[in-house]
Design goal:
Elements lengths: L10 E2 L6 H4 L6 H13 L4 E5 L10 H16 L9 E6 L8 H15 L4 E4 L8 H16 L5 E5 L3 H13 L4 E7 L6 H5 L2 H8 L2 E5 L19 H10 L4 H14 L3 H11 L3 E2 L6 H8 L8 H13 L13
Parallel strand pairs: 1-2, 2-3, 3-4, 4-5, 5-6, 6-7, 7-8
Helix pairs in contact: 2-3, 2-12, 3-4, 4-5, 6-8, 10-11, 10-13
Protein name: Aldo/keto reductase
InterPro entries: Aldo-Keto_reductase, Aldo/ket_reductase_CS, NAD(P)_OxRdtase_dom_sf, NADP_OxRdtase_dom
Keywords: Oxidoreductase
Length: 325
């Protein structure tokens, strides 16, 4: 089996089925199918989900929708074959998942919803609170790969020290570790800049995926001190925006000079840093905007200017509590 090669940008589907943060309801499903079709037609063939995505009774909804959309697309598509679409899911190390068999069972349930799994990922490390739980679950991931049930395996929210240990364990069984996924954006540079994750990934041959590359929408330019989203995202927005004004002004200026949007510049910055951003999209307009980040590249001076402004942000995004070192 060969290691998966991922496209420059993917699509995150956290919002598909999430009512708490993203106000999902099933009336959106037709539009989400259109988002999926547009992405694939334009070469965005990596779709990232998780078996924990979907709130309350909608648990697993994101995977179910993604499976339905893939099937419908492939029934009528001419441009792209089914095998070119990469369905990636993250399997959560819930407290009741304690054995390699439980990880295999979780993957089988996800595959039932998705139709198949191309990239299976450990959603987070348990090293910070139940280190004994982690290795059996990772062994289960490797079992899935060896059995040919997935095309690749990866991890999420791992720091460099833990990543090296996991990579070594995988290498002992001759299994490539395809990817590492971390929270990364102009408002969340910690895992890559301060922990040095990109250098470690390059050394180990691991592809680095950036989730929340638009920082819950704060980097799109549509929010201000006077205009914030509702719910929990509004709370985060009001905490961060005042101290990020200089960065957002810089982002807007570069976007204007490039005839791009702030979101497109923010996504292009992620790619310029050697990562694969996976922005979410709930509407065709959002998907089209994300696609505008492809086909061009920021100049080194622009990247450096954004880096300087990002370093000045007084209160960056809160880190994922499961991020290990």
């Amino acid at each position: 089996m060969t290691t998966l090669t991922l496209p420059p940008m993917g699509c995150g589907t956290w919002a598909w089925g999430n009512r708490l943060l993203w106000d999902y309801d099933d009336s959106m499903d037709r539009g989400l199918q259109q988002v999926f079709n547009l992405c694939v037609d334009n070469g965005v063939t990596l779709f990232d989900t998780g078996d924990s995505y979907g709130t309350g009774k909608l648990s697993g909804r994101s995977e179910s929708l993604l499976g339905q959309f893939t099937q419908r697309y492939c029934e009528t598509a001419v441009k792209v074959q089914r095998t070119e679409i990469c369905l990636a899911t993250k399997l959560a190390p819930y407290p009741w998942r304690l054995s390699r068999g439980s990880m295999i069972a979780a993957a089988e349930a996800s595959a039932e919803r998705l139709g198949r799994i191309d990239l299976a990922q450990m959603h987070w490390s348990t090293a910070n609170y139940f280190p004994w739980q982690e290795w059996p679950l990772l062994d289960g991931l490797m079992d899935l790969y060896e059995a040919g049930k997935v095309r690749g395996v990866g991890v999420s929210n791992y720091g460099p020290k833990r990543l090296r240990r996991v990579h070594r364990r995988f290498a002992e069984r001759g299994i490539p570790l395809v990817s590492l996924q971390v929270q990364y954006s102009l408002l969340s540079t910690y895992p890559v800049t301060e922990l040095g994750l990109k250098e470690v990934c390059d050394e180990l041959g691991i592809q680095l995926i950036a989730y929340s590359p638009l920082a819950l929408g704060l980097l799109t330019g549509k929010y201000s001190d006077e205009k914030t989203p509702s719910g929990l995202r509004g709370v985060v927005c009001r905490q961060i925006l005042p101290g990020a004004r200089s960065l957002l002004d810089c982002l807007g200026a570069i976007a204007q000079s490039r005839e791009k949007t702030p979101a497109q510049v923010a996504l292009n910055w992620c790619m310029a840093k050697g990562t694969i951003p996976i922005p979410g999209a709930k509407t065709l307009e959002q998907a089209q905007q994300n696609l505008g980040a492809l086909g061009w590249m920021l100049e080194s001076g622009e990247v450096e200017e954004l880096d300087r402004e990002a370093a000045k942000v007084k209160k960056p995004m809160v880190q994922n509590i499961f991020q290990s070192r």
